Amino acid sequence: EGFRKVLLSEERFTVAGTQTQKYLSGFAAPEEFAVVELDGAEQVVVLRETLAHNGSEGYMFLYQRDGEVRGVVAQRYLPDETLVVEPYYFGTVSNGRSSSLKTDGTLVLSDSPGRDGEVLSINTEEGCFQVDTLKNPGGVELPEYTADGQSATEAEYRAALERAMAKKDAFWYKFREDTINKVFA
What we know:
By secondary structure, the chain is mainly β. Helices cover 14% and strands 41% of the residues. It is globular, with a radius of gyration of 17 Å.
């Protein structure tokens, strides 16, 4: 019931890590949503929108904790210290989607400038998208490759990326009132 009310902007969600509360309608314009399960138990709703002016995909996720719906979003402060919250944007879509969400909450970024081949996971404890696997050809301040959160060889990185890509894709629902009511009936 909590997810349904937040998605329909009948109730506010709390921005994870803050006391800020937002109505979804005044914050984001998602086109689709998916429901995934973390570790087979915790249900999470992932929202996706695409910016028309540059094709960037924006993501945020909602989860329930202590009886309230919390939203994980990108946060930044303006020079006047105003908190701005917005979806996380991961590159530009060139050929279809620049990412693939899996049923366990894994997000595989591909064809995304500067982030191609990254594997992220949803972390509700820390309230973030956590980078698990990536390639960093420059090696600046980070290992050249990581796999499952650890420094890795190129072969280990490629194997971890293949494992992530082989997982089952999540189903995306159109962000419409009738669909939201059916999914969360």
